[in-house]
Structures are given as structure tokens and as C-alpha cells.
Design brief:
3 copies of one chain form a homotrimer. Chain A is α/β, with parallel strands linked by helices. Chain A is about 15% helix and about 25% strand. Chain A has 5 helices and 37 strands. Chain A is flat and about 75 Å long. At the A-B interface, strand 19, strand 20, strand 35, strand 36 and helix 4 of A face strand 4, helix 3, strand 37, helix 4 and helix 5 of B.
Chain lengths: ~325, ~325, ~325
């Protein structure tokens, strides 16, 4: 493990201003509640001011407006959370798996591997896959044939990339089965610096490719349908589903368990709240929300019953509206 | 790869009518946007008429009413999307994995395998499993003991079939823990021509079997509880959950991230919209929907606050209703 | 398989009172619909009274108030379902996998295994993992480094424990990408008698540990974020997402596809209904619900349109409210 570093050394590397003893020696990061000797923590919200008072951390990272809330040695930075992330990267490697291909992995001889790639136990990598430099597949990842991954891509266990999209045609054209399968002949391309959480699935394209651009971060158990495009630096939280051919812009965030309809377009800088179903295109940046506010069960039951009568009541009352 | 075929040869095999040069040679299918030399595409919706004007495809499949929208060589068919699916199957195999059992798969000696079966790397197939002719398990599928698969079943990577259902009894009968586990001694039976998407789970029955009938198509990350029955030719989109002992009819479609309560019955030809929770039985065919319409965050916040007062307001106003 | 046992022997072991012939010989449990010769079933709800009349089971477990509904040999017990669970455990082992480490599993030499542990084919167990006595990993489970499992823990196929949590900091502090990864250096600790369903994911902590206490039962495809705590004897149904740092109490139940926001606290004995998003802390026991009641599509469309106008309508009417 790298380090230790003094506060002064940290600030020399990462910027920020030291208040208190710059010789304070730091060996690791820790949480406000549990950090102890030799550990640096961060303070981000006045909600946790009581915890700041009690912390046994050796030093704290905080914003200028909070500088006077503690007498501990501290680093003052405009964006304490991002600063903390960089400090943690000083002490900890982001990827923890050894380089090379594990002997139990099954890698097609036609695969092109960059330098510094790590492929964990039980991975299966299909024909003509390309994996860029310094990328890491944790154990039990499957890459179907022809998937293309950029550099520094991190893929967690259980991820499946390039399985067939859900392409079926209604035999009689009435939108129901029997079904005819449409062979899925597109691929998947994943940009540099993408991270993909455990048990997430990204389908190959039906005809053209599914595309995840550089810097996109995807949490666990996300489902990304065929021919989806996710623009650079977007983030997708856990349990999200993105249906086929949706086009998500750049710098978008999608909250947990949100659901994006297929064949719609979402503009750059849109933020979708958790639990929200986006059913049509969004052309303007902003935050969009749509989940049913929970209540005690009986109150919900009464409200939901009225909600189901709303169309009727209101149309009757239209003349007054 | 099979082919090439002329438009005339394609129509001779699959029906439809050729307009333009029947000698047009086709090597592959492609999308309206990207198809090029030697590729045939399809046109399905007037929304994409501009793209049809610009396509560089060699030929187009379209409906009679759209025949005059292009001068390209074309095949006129009543159900262009289904026709396209069949054309794609001419040029592409639906299953892309080699026959036989991969050397890294762990297959119990008691398993009965049909002819033409393909079992990918890292699969684990338990005792007394039966797999019908021409079925394919992509890498890293797990079939627990006694699972029974029909013919031409395709199972994508990461699928788990036959894990224990969520069978727990409340020790004190108050509907909360501590819990007593109920051994799950039923099985799973899967009919012919079923396809199951990546990382989907289908639990074994508690006492009797879980049953997926022929021709059912299931997308990725679907959860199917113990003793569920899904009738023939139904389709289940990604991220759907179907709770234990639900009985789904035939020719049903269930949209992405919909949720079906346990112990209810859904009639044939029902269509459940994406994001909808079905909380009681449905005895009539039709389309059923229930998701919160999203809005800009502030508008949602105001509406949701009123929604939570609806039961109170309306019951006060009942005398007027 | 253990048994057979007479009704008398069963009652001598498990309590309850026999009505009818105590020499009735039982070999296995079965459902009301399909149990036959030598099988015992249970009756739990008057809804199924017709089935009780027709059952061909050899004996029935039922509550005192239902004792006279059948003339079959029977065991009368206060909590028939829990009693049935125990009877089934007499005849069936809850865990069906052989002891020992399968030859295809990849287990770090630094792992500490208890007695009677079973590790299935294709499992990957990282450095410094601890697995308590009599625990079972079904095939293709991944435990990242330093995960700690108690005794009698059952983990189904496809589960990933200890993957990185979704810890990213917004580089410019505006809540959107580019993102800086925060190394995830906490662990996961899982108590005794926990069961975890297929393809569920439990992330390692960011700084401190993720914690699942004893007796917790988790269904399939559940996502549990970093630093979540789930209190003893809680149960989490399929497709649930629990966002990072949520604190769930003991004896809590969470229905299928419910979603719990991050950084909130849920009191002991809370019951969250299926499909409900819990967006703030719950300090009182009780049942909480919040899903949109489904309807026929056109009715839903009309109601949803009015719902989106509710804030506007009501604020205009405020003077009357």
C-alpha cells in the first residue's frame, strides 16, 4: 500500500490548503464515524456536524465555509468529496485484481488484449473481442463475440456483455406471439474509463452496435437493451432498465430503478430521479421525477382509490375548470 | 455465412412480391441508416420516411401501402417486420455457439442431452437435468438438478434455472421473521422454442413444478418465482418480476420492469405496459397500465403532495359526488 | 431421503395434535392439488376449501378452527404453514449440494473455511474470505476478497458479494460527470443463517462494512448497495434495490421490486409493500405502500393526465381547502 504521506505532501500533490499541522501523517482514509489514528476523513454536510465534533480522525477534508467547525488538522478544498476521492486513490488502488489472464478463464485465441489487462477466474471471452490497455474483468464476466472494450474499463463479476437483444417479431403482426426471432448481428462498443457493476447486462445490437461512451459509470443489475447509446460521462444507478434503441445524452444521471422506454432520446445534462419511468423523449436539461409517493397503507389505499376516479370526476367537472 | 440470394430467390422462399429488379443481389440485412451495398433493410413506419429517402440499402422490405415511397428494389409484404426477421434468418444463424459440451462446463453424468445440443464454457448442469434436441446454453448458465428443457431452447449467459424459491414461513405466524425455510422440492419445466435472456432467474417449484410453456420469450434480468406458470407464446421484457404462483396466460406480453403479484391469474392475450404493477387477477384480454407519469421535478412534487391528500379531500366532498 | 414417519411420530417430534389415525404413514409433503398416497399437505385459507374437499393427500395440517372441514387424518397446529415447513424439513434436506469444494471452484489459499462447508462448481472465492460452518455456496458464486460469512449461510448461484459499491464523486461538484472513482475499501459481513437468492448482489462498503445480520432472507436479483445494514430476521423479496448507506431494522419485510433510497433509516417491524419506493426514513412500525394502481390503459391515461394537473388545480382552489 502506498504512503504514508503528510498533509503537506498531499496538498502539494492535489492542491487545497492545509490548516493545522502540515506534518500530520496520514496512512489511510476513513469515515467520520470510524476513522482513527493516521486516517483522514471528509466533512460534506452540516447534517453531520455532531459527528464532526466526535470524530477521532487524524485530519479532515472540508469546504472553506466549514473550516472553523473543527480544530483538527485539515485540508480546505472547494469540492471536498472529489478531493477525498483523489486522496483515497493515493492510498488505494482502484482495481484490486492481479494482472494477466487467470488460468480458469476461457479466452478465444482470436481475442486482442491490450497491455496491462487483468482477466479474472471463470471469465469467458468470445471470438474477436478487443480489450484495451489496463482494463480489468473481475471473475465470471462473459463477453460475447466481437464486443469491443476501450482502455481502463472495469467490469465487475457476473456482467454479461453482448448477449442477444430482445428482438422478436410478431408472426401475425398483432403484437403478440407466436414470435419470430430476429438474429442479433450488431456488436457492443464500450469507451475508455467505463465501469460496469456486478450482474449488469448490455445487449449486442440488432443490426448496428450498442454504444457506451467514455467515462460512463454503470452500477449493478442494470439492463441495457440493444442499440442503446449512452453518452460520455453519464452515470446509471442500480436496477435501472434502458429499453432498446434509447439514446441517452452525455452528463446524464439516472437514479436507481428508473426505467427508460425504448426508441426515445434524452438530452445531455438530464437527471432522472430514482424510480421514475421516462416514457417520452426529453429535449431540455433538468431533473425529471415520477414515482408514487408512499404513505401508510390505509392512507395509500384511500388515495389510490380516488386517483382511479380522477379522470371521471374531473371530466364531469370540466365546465367549472 | 449462407447466401448471397437475389430478391427473386428470397421471395420464392419466403413469399411477398418483388418490385424493381429481382436480380438484385443481397448478402446481408442492415438498418435503414447504415445498410449499404448488398444489404436489405425494412421500412415499418412513416415516422422514418426521411431515412427511407436517404438509405443506401440495396433493397427494402415494406408494406403495400408504402410501396411507392421509394424507387429502390423492394419486397412488398403484409408484415414487413416479420418478413425481415425471416430474411435475417436466411443470412444469419440465430444461435452462434458451436455444438457440443465445452470442456470447462460441469455436467452431471446423470444428465440427458438431446442431439445437437450446445453447452458453453463454464456452464453447470445438475443431476437428472434433461435438455432437448438443438438447445443451446451460452456460457455460465446454471441448471440446478432436475430442470427439464425442451427442444430448441436458447439460454443466455448468467441465467440460473431451478434455484430455490423464496419459501419461508413466519415462525410466530405474524408475517415477519424469524423464518423457517420450506425446502423447495418442485422442479422447473421449460417448453420447446423458449428463449431466456442473460442473468434471468427461474426458481424451482416449492412442491409442484414451475412451468414455462412452448414459444415463450423472456428478456434479460427477469425474475420468475416458484410455481409460476407462463402460457405458450407469451413474451416478458427485461427487468420484470413475477412473484410466486402467478399464472400467466398464453399470448400475453409484459412490458419492461412490470411486476406481477403472486397467486394471481392473468388471462390469455393480456398486455401489461412497462412499469406497471399488476396486483390482482385479470380475467379479460386488453392492455393494462399503471405507472406514475413523470414530470419536471417541481411539478411532480406539487402534484404528488396533492395526491397524498386526495383521499381526505374527496371524502370530505363526498356529499357532492 | 429420511422417513417414512407416522402422523403420531411427527406430532411427537414437532408438537401439534393428531386427529384421525395416528398410524397414517407419511413419506413426503405435497400440495393440496397434487399430493397423493403417502403425502401430507397443509390447509391455510378458507379460499381453498373446495380443493381441500378434493385433495387426495394422505393427511392434512390445519388450524384448530378448520379441524372439522375434512375427515382426512390430520395434524392440528396453531401455525399450519410453519408446521408444514418443519414437516418438510423432516423429509427433505434444505441444502442439496454435496460437502466439500468442487474441483472447478477457484478458492484463494488464504480463505478460512469452517467445517461442513460446500462450495459448488465454478465458484470464485477471493483472498482472506471467511466462511462459517455448514455454509453452502451453490455453483458460480463470487465472493470478492475479505467477505465474511457466518454459519449455515446459503448462497445461490450467480450471487456476487463484495463487488465495488457505486462510489463516484462529481469532478466539478455539480452532481454530474466526469466522475472520480472512490476506491471501495470496506468489506461485507453476513451473519449466521442468512440465505441469499440467485443473482443477488451485495456490494462491499466504501469505507466501513456492509452488514447483513443473522437470519436475514434475501430473494433473487436483489441489489444491496455499499454500507447498507439489514437487521436480524428481515426478509427482502425479489428485484428489490436498497441504495447505499440505508439502515434497515430487524424483523422488516420488503416486498418485491420495492426500492429503498440511500442514507435513510427504517425502523424495526416495518413492512414495505411490493413496488413501493421509500424515499425518507420510517421511524414507526407499520405497513407502507406507494404504487400506482393499474387500470385499463385508456382509464389510466385519463387519470394520469388529471394527476399531472392536480398541483395546479388544487392550488387554484386553495382558498376553499
Amino acid at each position: 500500500m502506498p504512503g504514508p504521506f503528510t498533509l503537506g505532501q498531499i496538498a502539494a500533490r492535489l492542491g487545497g490548503r492545509v490548516a493545522g499541522d502540515p506534518q500530520t501523517l496520514i496512512r489511510q482514509v476513513g469515515s467520520l464515524e470510524r476513522a482513527g489514528d493516521g486516517q483522514i476523513t471528509f466533512f460534506n454536510s452540516k447534517k453531520h456536524q455532531a459527528k464532526l465534533g466526535e470524530t477521532r480522525a487524524a485530519a479532515v477534508i472540508l469546504a472553506p465555509e466549514n473550516e472553523q467547525l473543527t480544530r483538527l488538522p485539515r485540508i480546505v478544498a472547494d469540492n471536498p468529496y472529489a478531493y477525498f476521492a483523489r486522496v483515497s486513490q493515493l492510498f488505494n488502488t482502484a482495481v484490486t485484481q492481479a494482472l494477466g489472464v487467470h488460468s480458469s478463464a476461457v479466452v478465444s485465441p482470436t481475442v486482442k488484449l491490450g497491455k496491462g489487462v487483468s482477466i479474472g477466474a471463470g471469465c469467458v471471452v468470445g471470438d474477436d473481442v478487443v480489450i484495451g490497455d489496463d482494463s480489468c474483468l473481475y471473475p465470471r464476466v462473459v463477453l460475447y463475440a466481437k464486443s469491443i472494450l476501450g482502455k481502463r474499463v472495469v467490469v465487475h463479476s457476473g456482467v454479461v456483455i453482448g448477449a442477444d437483444g430482445f428482438g422478436i417479431a410478431s408472426e401475425d403482426g398483432r403484437g403478440e406471439g407466436p414470435w419470430i426471432k430476429i438474429p442479433q448481428i450488431g456488436g457492443v462498443r464500450i469507451g475508455d474509463d467505463v465501469e460496469i457493476g456486478a450482474n449488469t447486462t448490455i445487449d449486442r445490437g440488432a443490426l448496428d452496435d450498442t454504444l457506451i461512451e467514455e467515462g460512463v459509470k454503470i452500477d449493478n443489475q442494470v439492463q441495457i437493451g440493444h442499440n442503446v447509446r449512452i453518452g460520455a460521462h453519464s452515470a446509471v444507478a442500480g436496477c435501472v432498465g434502458i429499453a432498446g434503441s434509447a439514446e441517452i445524452g452525455s452528463h446524464v444521471t439516472i437514479g436507481g430503478a428508473a426505467m427508460i422506454h425504448g426508441h426515445i432520446t434524452i438530452a445531455d445534462h438530464v437527471h432522472v430521479s430514482a424510480g421514475t419511468l421516462i416514457s417520452r423523449s426529453l429535449t431540455k436539461p433538468g431533473t425529471y421525477t415520477g414515482f408514487y409517493p408512499f404513505d401508510e397503507h390505509e392512507a395509500w389505499r384511500r388515495n389510490a382509490a380516488q386517483l382511479r376516479r380522477l379522470g371521471r370526476i374531473k371530466s364531469r367537472g370540466k365546465k367549472d375548470g
